[in-house]
Amino acid sequence: MRTILVHFDVSDNQVRLETFIKSAKAAQKSVQAVNNAYFGGEFVFEIVVLAPEAGSLKQFIGITWKAAQGAGYAYAILWSAIQMLDSQSVQDISRELYGKEPTEMIIDKINRIKEAREDGSVSEETLAMEAQQLVEELVTRSATSGLEFEPLKLRKSKIPDNTKYEFSQAQSDLFSGALADPDISGIGFSEEEEFPVPRNKFAERAVPPVRPEEEEDEEYILSTRDILVTSPQFYREDQATRKWKGRDVSGSFVLFEITDEEFWQKLKNREIDFGEDTVLKLQIATLKSARGRPTHKAIRVLAVDDEQIASPLSDDAVAAIIGSFSAAQYENDVLDLF
Predict the structure, then answer these.
(1) CA-CA distance, 154 to 175, in Å (whole number)?
(2) Buried b (16+ CB within 10 A) or exposed e, 78-88
């Protein structure tokens, strides 16, 4: 068994139960992304949450390859896995995830197992055990990298689009759960007291990704908009069927969805009040489609009426969420898009 470690930076030794559950599910999704990328999703990995260390908030998530249990049949499957791991595409993905040197070490292990099998110097049972350990090590290491990967670098990497999407889904689960827990200041993925993802980066990682097949060839246009809300949508999961409705400064109607995780947490915690004339200042990404009306995503809620609640996302953060984009020339001056 190998483990994925999610290390929470907290002042007290506690996090919310739903945060623990979401991080475990995030690890599960990341493992499945690796399984899909390396093995075509054919194998089954058992995932368990291990007891945390006393006095710490290190969540250890154990990964076991269930197909490795048994005698001759298991060995045949393990050998098939080794053949897959030796493919160029798998090695290319592993290099993107954690660099050249660890990947070369894994290739060396694969070659040693193959040589031992050919010359018969090691028993099949021993080879099966070594192969199982290698598969579990590679999967857990890759899944951990998928959770930690900086979003913009992930998007620019040579990892297949579907795998990027699955990793982004896993990150969304992990960091939306952490964002809902105000006691978490940062997250790391090692035993060290180092937390490479601080709380101010949680929101951009918590945004649910867009499926690759849903992406358009057209480029998003980013603008800052003041929208008078005429029909709010307080149920996030229902935005697919009924969006927020409002008017822009020209009086034109605007339909939009809000993907800002931090806004939804503030709304849930009743930190935001809405009235009949509530105005939202939004960072909106607009995509014109040849098939119909444009779509609008509020990726950041900057202010409610005159109260600022967040700072604008940086260009890098925006690109990590929506991909390539161009900025509107003037604030509130892309009326033709609506």
Answers:
(1) 16
(2) bbebbeebeee
- 206, with CB counted inside 10 A (0-12, 13-18, 19+), is buried
| pTM (predicted TM-score) | 0.67
Say how far residue 216 (Cα) sits from the centre of its chain.
21
Query: What does the pLDDT look like over 230-241, one tens digit per residue?
Result: 888 888 888 877
216-337 CATH pick, 2.40.128, 2.40.50, 1.25.40, 3.40.50: 2.40.50
Tens of pLDDT, residue by residue over 79-90, are 667 767 777 778
**Phi, psi (degrees; rounded to nearest 5) at 234:** -85, 0
Amino acid sitting at position 143: A
User: Of 1, 26, 36, 329, which is closest to residue 187 (Cα–Cα)?
Assistant: 26
| Among 154, 140, 137, residue whose Cα is nearest residue 189 | 140
Asked whether 225 and 332 are in contact (CB, 8 A), the reply is yes
